[in-house]
Amino acid sequence: TSDAGRVSGTYVSDGHEVLTYKKGNRGVRYVFKKESGDAAAPGYIQFSDHHIAPKKVSHYHLYWGDDRAEVLKELTNWPTYYPASMSGEDILHDMLAH
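Above: the chain's sequence. Below: its structure in C-alpha coordinate form.
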Protein backbone atom coordinates (compact mmCIF):
# COMPACT_ATOMS: atom_id res chain seq x y z
CA THR A 1 0.00 0.00 0.00
CA SER A 2 0.99 3.61 -0.45
CA ASP A 3 -0.28 6.95 0.80
CA ALA A 4 -2.80 6.83 -2.05
CA GLY A 5 -4.02 3.37 -1.02
CA ARG A 6 -3.45 -0.04 -2.47
CA VAL A 7 -1.38 -0.51 -5.63
CA SER A 8 -0.74 -3.64 -7.65
CA GLY A 9 1.38 -4.95 -10.46
CA THR A 10 2.14 -8.07 -12.43
CA TYR A 11 5.76 -9.20 -12.17
CA VAL A 12 7.93 -11.53 -14.27
CA SER A 13 11.25 -13.12 -13.43
CA ASP A 14 14.28 -10.96 -14.19
CA GLY A 15 16.87 -13.52 -13.11
CA HIS A 16 18.83 -13.70 -9.89
CA GLU A 17 22.00 -12.31 -8.40
CA VAL A 18 24.40 -14.05 -6.01
CA LEU A 19 25.68 -11.54 -3.47
CA THR A 20 28.77 -11.83 -1.28
CA TYR A 21 28.40 -10.01 2.04
CA LYS A 22 31.11 -8.30 4.13
CA LYS A 23 31.36 -11.37 6.41
CA GLY A 24 32.21 -13.48 3.34
CA ASN A 25 28.95 -15.43 3.30
CA ARG A 26 26.83 -15.45 0.18
CA GLY A 27 23.15 -15.16 -0.55
CA VAL A 28 20.88 -14.90 -3.55
CA ARG A 29 18.32 -12.34 -4.62
CA TYR A 30 15.65 -13.48 -7.06
CA VAL A 31 14.56 -10.45 -9.05
CA PHE A 32 11.11 -9.78 -10.49
CA LYS A 33 10.39 -6.91 -12.88
CA LYS A 34 7.03 -5.21 -13.18
CA GLU A 35 5.41 -6.13 -16.47
CA SER A 36 2.20 -4.17 -15.97
CA GLY A 37 0.18 -2.52 -13.26
CA ASP A 38 -0.19 0.68 -11.34
CA ALA A 39 2.46 3.36 -11.90
CA ALA A 40 2.91 3.63 -8.11
CA ALA A 41 3.77 -0.10 -7.79
CA PRO A 42 7.55 -0.67 -7.52
CA GLY A 43 9.41 -1.49 -10.73
CA TYR A 44 11.27 -4.36 -9.07
CA ILE A 45 10.71 -6.78 -6.22
CA GLN A 46 13.59 -8.88 -4.94
CA PHE A 47 13.24 -12.03 -2.82
CA SER A 48 15.99 -13.43 -0.60
CA ASP A 49 16.01 -16.50 1.63
CA HIS A 50 19.80 -16.56 2.23
CA HIS A 51 20.28 -19.80 0.30
CA ILE A 52 21.64 -20.33 -3.17
CA ALA A 53 20.36 -23.90 -3.49
CA PRO A 54 16.77 -25.00 -2.80
CA LYS A 55 16.21 -25.52 0.93
CA LYS A 56 13.34 -25.23 3.38
CA VAL A 57 13.62 -21.89 5.18
CA SER A 58 12.06 -20.35 8.28
CA HIS A 59 11.87 -16.81 6.91
CA TYR A 60 12.63 -14.66 3.88
CA HIS A 61 13.30 -11.03 2.95
CA LEU A 62 11.64 -8.77 0.39
CA TYR A 63 13.08 -5.63 -1.16
CA TRP A 64 11.48 -3.30 -3.67
CA GLY A 65 12.12 -0.14 -5.66
CA ASP A 66 12.29 1.27 -9.14
CA ASP A 67 16.03 0.81 -9.78
CA ARG A 68 17.17 -2.83 -10.01
CA ALA A 69 20.83 -2.10 -9.19
CA GLU A 70 20.01 0.22 -6.29
CA VAL A 71 17.70 -2.33 -4.68
CA LEU A 72 20.51 -4.92 -4.89
CA LYS A 73 22.75 -2.55 -2.92
CA GLU A 74 20.41 -2.58 0.10
CA LEU A 75 22.38 -4.61 2.61
CA THR A 76 21.57 -2.70 5.82
CA ASN A 77 17.84 -3.25 6.25
CA TRP A 78 16.42 -6.77 6.12
CA PRO A 79 12.59 -6.63 5.87
CA THR A 80 11.85 -10.08 7.29
CA TYR A 81 8.72 -12.17 6.79
CA TYR A 82 7.70 -15.30 8.70
CA PRO A 83 4.88 -17.80 8.21
CA ALA A 84 1.75 -16.73 10.09
CA SER A 85 1.78 -20.12 11.82
CA MET A 86 5.03 -19.33 13.68
CA SER A 87 4.70 -18.21 17.29
CA GLY A 88 6.47 -15.18 18.70
CA GLU A 89 8.78 -17.52 20.60
CA ASP A 90 9.64 -19.41 17.38
CA ILE A 91 10.45 -16.13 15.66
CA LEU A 92 12.59 -15.00 18.59
CA HIS A 93 14.65 -18.18 18.47
CA ASP A 94 15.05 -17.93 14.70
CA MET A 95 16.22 -14.30 14.91
CA LEU A 96 18.69 -15.04 17.72
CA ALA A 97 20.19 -17.85 15.62
CA HIS A 98 20.28 -15.56 12.59
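Strands lie at 9-20, 26-37, 44-48, 60-65, 80-81.
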